[in-house]
Amino acid sequence: MATCSSGSTFRIQSSNGAEITANSNTINTCTATNILDRLHREFTEKYAPKSGVVPVGKTAISETHQNNPTFYLRKQPKFTSFFGENDDGQEINRFNSMLTAEPPKTEDDLQFRTTIHGIMNGTYNDKVNTDNYKTPPTPQSNLQNPDSFKGIYGLVNLNNVLETQIDTIIKNMAGSESTAQATSDIANKYAKRRGIQTTLETIADRENEIYREKFLNLILMIVGIFIIGTQLVKKYYSFGGGNTGSGSDGGGFFGNLFTGFGLGASSGIFSRFGGLGLGRSGRSRITGIFSNNPYSLSTR
Known about the structure:
The protein has helices at 27-44, 70-73, 94-100, 110-121, 151-171, 177-236, 252-263, 269-272, 285-291; strands spanning 9-10, 20-21, 47-48, 59-60, 76-77, 91-92.
């Protein structure tokens, strides 16, 4: 495939399939697009059996297709030229078949080395050995030789070349490297500010979450204290009955609660501990201290 020149046409996805005519500024874009189209076909094309009617959209399999990764990666018709495969009209995924064989094929097998070399380098070579079957080709620094971009190595190399050219274009924006650098600095500052904003938002969300957790814990603690207090009153301070209203059982929950604290006639905490003069136990030991006080006015 020759490189593009001014007047060559190409298609890119963003143009909705419409042809674009290359000029001096888009020659490399045209060439790169054609290389990518070819690589896509070599990685995905579906072949038809060597004999018979070739369906629309397929290509009859041939020896030249052994250069393409799709020959090894996709389910394709068997081909006698590839290590004497039995041409029985069936299809085979060559790479998967090698890995699932018993025992699986490894780099000790020439068929395996040839397959890996074809996928990585995009060329058929049934003479490679264990030392060179994974050796990449010499990388290209430009797009002057489009046919050298083959296989996975070619795809990686093309990406590297395009990155270099894009970087060169950015640096030469507006005819001044300083302008491009200033633009890059502004972008970096924006990214940092955006990062700071995201960090602050994260901190604020976490603080709100912590406050909500503390408030919930406080509510749970209050409820726990109330429940525990209620159980203690039931156990130790005449907390009988199970009603929550008023009735003959002493007022139920609230009645027993107040009675348990000595506000009733004969029960409560104060009557249990000698009384403090709030019930009929007014003659308790504690109140007796004051009624028999030798320093009271009645005994002077």
